[in-house]
Structure formats: structure tokens, C-alpha cells
Amino acid sequence: MQIWSQASQMAAQTPPERNRYVDLLRSVSILAVVSGHWLLATAYVVDGEIEVGDLLSAVPSVQWLTWLFQVMPIFFIVGGYSNAVSLESARRKGVGYAGWLSARLNRLVAPLLILLVTWAIIALAMGFFGARPEVIRYVSQAALIPTWFLAIYIAVVMLAPASYKFWRHYGFTSFWIFAAGAVLTDVAFFEAEIRWLGWTNYFWVWLAVHHLGFAWRDDRLGGVPKRLLFSAAGFAALWLMVTYGPYPLAMVGSPDPELSNTLPPKVTLLALGVFQFGLLLALETPMRRALDGLKLWTATVLINSMIMTVYLWHITVMVLFGTLLYVTGGLGLGIEPGTAAWWWSRPVWIAILLALLLPVALLLSPLERRGPPAGAPVPGVARQIAGALLICVGIALVAMYGFGGGPSPKLATASGPFPRVDVAAFAMVIVGAGISGLLPKWRKS
User: Fold this and answer.
1) Number of domains in the chain
2) Could you give the 3-state DSSP secondary structure of residue 406?
3) Whole-number Å distance between alpha carbons of 122 and 128
4) Tens of pLDDT along 83-134?
């Protein structure tokens, strides 16, 4: 295959000093997220009506699976390591903050724009053909779930130079400051019932987890015994919080709509990240030796070359395929979730979705590898930050409400599939991308 040949050539040119295990963890994590979403989402047709839900609600006994499939902490850890490497490289090359940020934003935002524009068109088409606003809202909201990650990660990237300086100056003390912020926020959330403050944990929790990547880059975790002890401490803290504290067992979603470990984030995600981090780093030496083999490393390079596209589009593929099955008679959707037959059908379900996702990834992934044209002017820092903040707010709103609806039924007018909140959110992302110099028409050849 030509794509394998190209990945093999790229793999062969990898500098020897590159930590290939970082890339492997990134690729394995994305596959875990994709397979987890495909596994946990359920659609069941009864008497011609479709019941859409999730496995955690249908079969609460499988909530422990989320301890395996919740790998967002790994993404932020790997992001911390990669941001540290890129910041060091930028400093050596004399690249300032504006140039560094522009390069990072290009890789993150370009794939996102195509997804949002696609769903805006789908929502408009559904409204034109008479789909109910709540249906448009539900399917678009489901498909755009992955975008929440970019909303917070872009903010973390903007703060990376400052947070890396904080780490280099204070070491693990800086990590514990963020961790303490997460703990105090949870105390206020549960004990004082200051619920709005819980949203600040998007920063406290994920900046702390991001700091673990800095610790890895600086080799501050010692040998295997210390790393395993670190992992055991994270597991013990997580088990105690779930067993004796107010936290639910599920690390993704929750059968209780009023309580979740992820919305907003809780300190349990930090404990989970410490547990995963220590355990995975204990395997670093043998895994780095295994990655010296060209085949495993080529596969890793191939997955990483399309990782954002795979992540952003995997639920869209599932939603569109599930919709096609439903409108053509519900083939395969008549198996009750959680039954033995349903479990036996999951490998086939995942294999079909993977086969459908692959051509989408091959078609769209060049966008995430394309940087600004050589010699193109770099937008100023203030302009980039202002644009990126608009993008973050817009993404957060779209991820929360989808197209076709808003936080209040009063906002769902009869004017079409885009109530005002959705128009504003979509406009924020597009305008923010334009301000930051991330739209193609803003780039000068």
C-alpha cells in the first residue's frame, strides 16, 4: 500500500533522539477512545422506534470499563511532553511565542473547521427536509462530542510556555499547586454546593495532568519501582474517592445525570491520570526497545499522521452509519444492548465502523499535517490569543448544545435549525480562526 510505504519512509527518517513511546501512547490512546465510544454507544430499535442511549445506563455493571477507556489524561500527559519538546526546540531556533503558537494552532484547528462546517451543512439539510429541531440537536451534539477536548486543550496550549516556566522553576511543587486547586474546587462543589466553581477544574485538573508530561520530559520520576509506587498511589486515591467519597464509578459519563466525573472534571480524573501515567511509564524501557523495530514504529507513525482526523470524525461516522441502518429497516439494531448476542456482535460493529472511518481519515488527514505556507507572516500574539479564545468558547458551546438547539427551549425558534446560540457559537469559531490567521483565505502564498 502506498500509504504504508510513505509511513515507512517517514519512520526510517526518525531522529534517534525522538522518544517514540510518546507517539505510541498517543496512537494507542486514540484507538482506545474510538473503540470505547463505538462500544458504549447503543441504539436499539423496538417496534419501529429507535432508542438511543449508552451501555453504562443500560448495564450499570460495566461501568468499570471506563477505567480502561477513559484515556484523556494520557492525551494531556503526552501533550505536556510534546509541548515541552517543541518549546525547547523553538528556543534553540530563536522562534518566539507567536511563531510557536501559530504552528500549534494550525495543526489543531484545521481539522476542526471541516468537521463544524460539515455538520452545519448537515443540520441545514435536515431542517430543510423537515427533521425536528430536537433530532437535529441530538445527532449533531452526539457527533460533536469529541470537540470538547480541543476547547480546553487549545487553552492549555496557549498557557504552555508560562506553565512550563512554572514547572522548570518550582518542579513538582507546581504540580501540587494545581492538584490542590482541583481538590479545593471539589470540596467547594460538594460540601459548599458552589457548583459553578466546579467548571474551573477544566484548568486545575488538566493543567496538573499536563504537568506530568513536563515531569516525564525532565525525567523526574526515577526508576521503575518509583513509577509503580506513583501508579499505586494514584489507584489507591481513586479507589478511596469512588468507594468512600461522593464520586461515581464511571470515569466517562454517568448514569446519574446530576453527577459526573467529567462534566465538570473532578479530581478523580487527576488520580486516574497518575495511576495510568506511573503504570505506563514503568513499561517505557521495553516498549522503546520494541519501537526500534520498523513495523511497529511505522504503524505508530501512520496512526499519528491522521490522529486528529480519526478522533474528530469517528462519532460522525457512527451517527451517519447508524442513521442509514435505521432508515433502511433497522438492520442490526434489533439486538438488545448488553445481551450475549449484542456482545458477540460488537467486533463486527467496530470492524465495519473502522472500515468506514479509514477512507475519511485518508481523505481529510492532510489538513492536520499542513502548516502555514513558507514565508507567510505570523499573526501577532494578541491577535492569535483573541482568536483562539473565541474558538475555545465557540467549540465549548457547540459541543454542549450541538446544532438545532440551545440551553433554553425559548431560544429554539421556528426560524430554522440554527437557533441564535448555535449561530453565535459557529460564528465564534469561524471568526476566531480568521482572526488567528487559520483560514485559508487569510494565508498569503
Assistant:
1) 1
2) coil
3) 10
4) 999 999 999 988 899 989 988 888 888 889 999 999 989 988 888 877 788 8
**This prediction's pTM:** 0.88
Paired with 351 in beta bridges are none
**β partners of residue 234:** none
- Cα dist. 144→113, 127, 137, 140, 397 in Å? 12, 18, 10, 6, 10
- Name the one residue in this structure whose C-alpha cell is 490512546: 29
The rounded distance, in Å, linking the Cα atoms of 125 and 172 is 52
**Residue-wise over 151-181: b if at least 16 C-beta within 10 A, else e?**
bbbbbbbbebbebbebbeeeeeebbeebbeb
46, β-bridge pairs: 49
AA identity, residue 201? N
Q: What is the pLDDT of residue 414?
A: 40
What does the alpha-carbon distance between residue 113 and residue 107 come to, in Å, rounded to a whole number? 11
Using alpha carbons, select from 417, 395, 419 the residue that is nearest to residue 407: 419
Report the C-alpha gap between 398 and 144 in whole angstroms.
7
Closest by alpha carbon to 22, among 86, 107, 97?
A: 86
To 5 degrees, how large is the angle CA 307–CA 390–CA 70? Answer: 35
Local structure of residue 171 (DSSP, 8 states): T
Q: How confident is the model at residue 440 (pLDDT cuts 50, 70, 90)?
A: low
Written as nine digits, the cell of 343 is 456482545
Q: Which domain range does residue 173 map to?
A: 2-442
Q: Which three cell numbers stand for residue 155?
A: 487553552
Q: 375 falls in which pLDDT band (50, 70, 90)?
A: low
Least confident of 24-38, 244-258, 307-321: 244-258
